[in-house]
Design goal:
119 residues; mainly beta; four-stranded antiparallel sheet
Length: 119
């Protein structure tokens, strides 16, 4: 089983930057598709960015050009570099791992880290 622990959240002013980290345990990291989701206050959880086991990336339109997802398989860690932050980026950010297993897929979630963009 994969355990995910997020870090790096906090309070930042509009236009600022933060880097979130997600440290994963277990031996399945290299074959997992990793993603960041976020849940703004009072809203549904939404996909922010994804990086596949092969290194392909996808981004929500709202963060394209501002956020970058990356992974370091040697460290079992995925990152989300967030630049030009806006108040609407305020949310709890969750790390997600989608692991292919023999008979399908299994999702794992971190507990989340709060990002607040405010002056």
């Amino acid at each position: 089983q994969v355990q995910l622990v997020e870090s790096g959240g906090g309070l930042v002013q509009p236009g600022g930057s933060l880097r979130l980290s997600c440290a994963a345990s277990g031996s399945s990291f290299s074959r997992a598709d990793m993603a960041w989701y976020r849940q703004p206050p009072g809203n549904e959880r939404e996909l922010v960015a994804m990086v596949t086991s092969g290194g392909n990336t996808n981004y929500a339109d709202s963060v394209k050009g501002r956020f970058t997802i990356s992974r370091d398989n040697a460290k079992n860690t995925v990152y989300l570099q967030m630049n030009s932050l806006r108040p609407e980026d305020t949310a709890v950010y969750y790390c997600n791992a989608n692991v292919r297993v023999a008979f399908g897929f299994v999702d794992y979630w971190g507990q989340g880290t709060l990002v607040t963009v405010s002056s």
